[in-house]
Amino acid sequence: MLRMRIWAATAPVLIASAFAGGHIVASPRPCIPLDGVSVWLGTTPWQDQRHVSFTSDPKTATVRVQIVDSPELADFAIVDDVATPEAASCGEGTTPRFVSVAPHASAAEPVIYLSAEPDADYRVFVQSRTATAQDAAALIVGAALAPPSPPRLAAAL
Questions:
Q1: Which of 49, 112, 149, 151 is the most exposed place for a label (fewest CB within 10 A)?
Q2: pTM for the whole thing?
Q3: Which DSSP string corresponds to 93-130?
């Protein structure tokens, strides 16, 4: 009987927290801060404002993203256990924009080809236990859709 009372008391809190933020337990998520806008990976369907998809065929891609070996070469890097003021303040006082990965490609959405080959539109570096190279690629391409877009460093080098 005591178990039912505990469950009855905690179930509404768990459900409310899942709907409020999309997560029951808060977890750090990668973010790209821009002027007045922060771009996040969408975690729930009602957050998604932009969509991207991935392809294994470079001919069908509209955006190419290169995985690089060092953060210095990357346009966007995700590294665990690195605390920077930019990462800590991402999203504070900005308008959040969300990007998610669509299961199927659409003509109206960017289609990303992710590889280690040079001659890419963007470059990413990922050293993380929770984020993937696909997450980083989706964020950098999603940030390019949100004004003001980040500089295309890969094109400059």
A1: 151
A2: 0.73
A3: TSEEEEEEE-SS--TTS-EEEEES-SS-SEEEEEE-SS
